């Protein structure tokens, strides 16, 4: 069953001189197992929207259900948090335990997982993010490098085995190889567990690479929620919203302008590569 | 957690907002003296009119001024009741069982409450119309003469400014960390006192780590811009007394004079 947002609106600090409408009348569904990308200009309400999906924030109006659980109820929210994992921007700043093991175990322990299973989950999650358990479990999280901290923090959420994983700009502040590593591990995670992923990102290439569907936010309203082909087929609209096209889509547009018969709807790096190799040989 | 506004500053650009913070601090002290000078209940009308006038000029909703009295409501009620029952008097108004309420006691209770309301309401106008930053700037300049005697006025003001600057940031950060830990299934609400205190560790550790990191970064940034304390330091916004400051001072002084003269006549 999916996460369903029905006509949700949210206002920060209502009825004060700092009132700020962050979301207005958004309806969106996150299907099981899908990869949904969320894009939008700074301040368009992406992070706010994400926090509504696991009940951390509650809409001023409208309804959110996760697998049929109505998140306006406290019990349902607590239950939903075990199904929906949320990784905030710069998750490395939440590490607090003495060892990496204890920190990754924090989530599963809160869910009431048995101690024997916790060890298994922690080791699995650490392996998945590429931190060899035998080297890292006893280390202090504060002694890790920035990239390792980020991985440890991700492992802390993976160990909760959510059926939906929400990520707020997981690539922010990483170098290109770090970004590729995060993308790769998200894809591995998905292949292994089949969990749905919702990812906010400013990097169109990463979104193009992974997303089955893209939601476009603009000033708190949902502008589009569609397949990448359709979203990237309208470059003017995206540019107007302060967004960009993936490199592959830009290249194919430029080639079309110069008279090369590139088919429409190319937005992935590997697709344009394949086309060019074929066309030039 | 995010809806705590610090120092209750109400942003604006009215003539009251634009007054020199030093003027406002000094006039606030004068206003306090003035309220204490009042001996007759009806003379409270003068400071009341003054507060009303300033509120109007500052374009602050009356609600915000009244809100500043809210934390005081219990003290107010308590003082009123204490004065009502414990003041000795002659003219009995009502007798309930063995407790007598006299006219003098009622007058005294109303008088004390009015004084308290006017004190808090009036002084809150200053914090409502002065941003914390300009308030510290004003304080620094007012305390500057004492730095000759070794009083660290600049250091104090700088510390206050930094603290004021970072309190909202740290609160936001605490909120963010709390949410992140909630998402990891943390429970801050159930259990006994010890369990609850323990459950704060996942918030406090990252918060302290980040506060120290920020302090470190700020110190580095200040040093790399050659900050070396108050000696020989100039300001970007130089505070200058303007005609409006004189007008405000004159207004409040004449109010004080009126109160003194009217009471002397009695
Ligand atoms: N705690 C808050 N208090 C008041 N207003 C807020 C708060 N958080 C966000 N806002 C406002 O709500 C709007 C949406 O914010 P949000 O953080 O959801 O944007 P975003 O799309 O995630 O932006 P970014 O890409 O910069 O992360 C913004 O206009 C922002 O100023
Ligand atoms: Mg955001």
Write the layout of secondary structure elements.
The complex is a heterodimer of chains A (281) and B (266).
Chain A: E1 3-12, E2 20-30, E3 35-40, H1 46-52, E4 61-66, E5 69-70, H2 74-83, E6 84-87, H3 100-110, H4 115-128, H5 133-136, H6 146-158, E7 164-168, H7 176-193, E8 196-200, H8 204-210, E9 213-218, E10 221-226, H9 228-232, H10 235-240, H11 247-257, H12 269-280
Chain B: H1 21-37, H2 45-58, H3 62-67, H4 73-86, E1 92-96, E2 99-102, H5 103-129, H6 132-147, H7 153-183, H8 193-199, H9 201-224, H10 243-264
Antiparallel strand pairs in B: 1-2
The complex binds adenosine-5'-triphosphate and magnesium ion.
What does this structure look like?
Chain A is α/β, with parallel strands linked by helices. Chain A has 2 domains: 3-237, Rossmann fold (3-Layer(aba) Sandwich); 246-281, no CATH class. Chain A is built from 12 helices and 10 strands. Chain A has a 6-stranded mixed sheet with strand order 6-7-8-3-9-10, with helices on both faces. In chain A, a hairpin with a 2-residue loop joins strand 4 and strand 5. In chain A, helix 3 crosses helix 4. The relative contact order of chain A is 0.14. The mean pLDDT of chain A is 91. Chain B is mainly α and 266 residues long. Chain B has 2 domains: 1-155 and 240-266, no CATH class; 164-228. Helix content of chain B is 67%, strand content 3%. Chain B contains 10 helices and 2 strands; from the N terminus they run ααααββαααααα. A two-stranded antiparallel ribbon of chain B has the order 1-2. In chain B, strand 1 (92-96) and strand 2 (99-102) form a beta hairpin. Chain B is flat. Chains A and B meet through strand 6 and helix 3 of A and helix 7 and helix 9 of B. The structure holds adenosine-5'-triphosphate and magnesium ion. The site of adenosine-5'-triphosphate (ATP) has 12 residues of chain A, from strand 2 and helix 1.
């Amino acid at each position: 069953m999916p996460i369903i947002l029905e006509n949700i609106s949210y206002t920060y600090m209502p009825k004060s001189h700092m009132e700020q409408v962050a979301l207005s009348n958004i309806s969106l569904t996150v299907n099981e197992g899908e990869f949904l990308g969320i894009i939008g200009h700074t301040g368009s309400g992406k992070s706010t929207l994400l926090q509504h999906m696991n009940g951390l924030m509650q809409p001023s109006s409208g309804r959110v259900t996760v697998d049929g659980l109505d998140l306006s109820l406290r019990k349902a929210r607590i239950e939903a948090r075990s199904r929906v994992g949320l990784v905030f921007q710069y998750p490395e700043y939440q590490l607090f335990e003495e060892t990496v093991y204890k920190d990754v175990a924090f989530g599963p322990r809160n869910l009431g997982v048995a101690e024997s299973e916790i060890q298994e989950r922690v080791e699995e999650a650490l392996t998945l993010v590429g931190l060899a358990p035998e080297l890292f479990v006893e280390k202090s999280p504060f002694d890790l490098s920035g990239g390792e901290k980020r991985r440890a923090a991700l492992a802390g959420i993976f160990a909760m085995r959510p059926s939906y994983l929400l990520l707020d700009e997981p690539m922010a502040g990483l170098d290109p190889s770090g970004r590729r590593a995060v993308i790769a591990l998200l894809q591995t995670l998905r292949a292994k567990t089949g969990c749905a992923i919702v990812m906010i990102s400013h990097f169109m290439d990463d979104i193009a690479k992974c997303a089955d569907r893209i939601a476009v936010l603009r000033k708190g309203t949902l502008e589009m929620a569609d397949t990448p082909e359709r979203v990237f087929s309208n470059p003017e609209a995206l540019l107007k919203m302060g967004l960009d096209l993936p490199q592959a889509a830009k290249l194919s547009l430029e080639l079309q302008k110069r008279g090369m018969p590139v088919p429409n709807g190319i937005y992935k790096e590997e697709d344009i590569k394949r086309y060019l190799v074929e066309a030039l040989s | 957690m995010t809806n705590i506004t610090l120092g209750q500053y109400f942003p604006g650009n009215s003539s009251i907002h634009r007054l020199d913070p030093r003027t406002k601090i000094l006039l606030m002290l004068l206003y306090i003296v003035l309220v204490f000078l009042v001996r007759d209940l009806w003379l409270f009308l003068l400071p009341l009119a003054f507060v009303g006038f300033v509120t109007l000029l500052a374009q602050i909703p009356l609600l915000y001024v009244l809100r500043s009295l809210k934390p005081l409501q219990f003290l107010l009620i308590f003082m009123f009741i204490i004065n009502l029952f414990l003041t000795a008097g002659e003219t009995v108004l009502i007798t309930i069982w063995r407790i007598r309420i006299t006219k003098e006691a009622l007058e005294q209770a109303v008088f004390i409450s009015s004084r308290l309301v006017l004190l808090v309401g009036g002084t809150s106008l200053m914090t409502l119309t002065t941003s914390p930053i300009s308030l510290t700037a004003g304080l620094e300049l007012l305390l500057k003469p004492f730095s000759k005697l070794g009083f660290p006025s600049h250091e104090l003001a700088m510390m206050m400014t930094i603290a004021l600057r970072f309190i909202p940031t740290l609160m936001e950060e605490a909120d963010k960390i709390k949410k992140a830990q909630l998402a990891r299934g943390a429970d801050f609400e159930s259990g006994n006192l010890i369990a609850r205190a323990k459950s704060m560790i996942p918030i406090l550790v990252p918060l302290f780590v980040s506060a120290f990191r920020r302090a470190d970064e700020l110190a580095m940034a200040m040093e790399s811009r050659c900050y070396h304390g108050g000696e020989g330091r100039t300001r970007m916004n130089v505070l200058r007394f303007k005609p409006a400051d004189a007008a405000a001072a004159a207004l409040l002084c004449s109010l004080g004079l009126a109160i003194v003269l009217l009471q002397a006549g009695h």
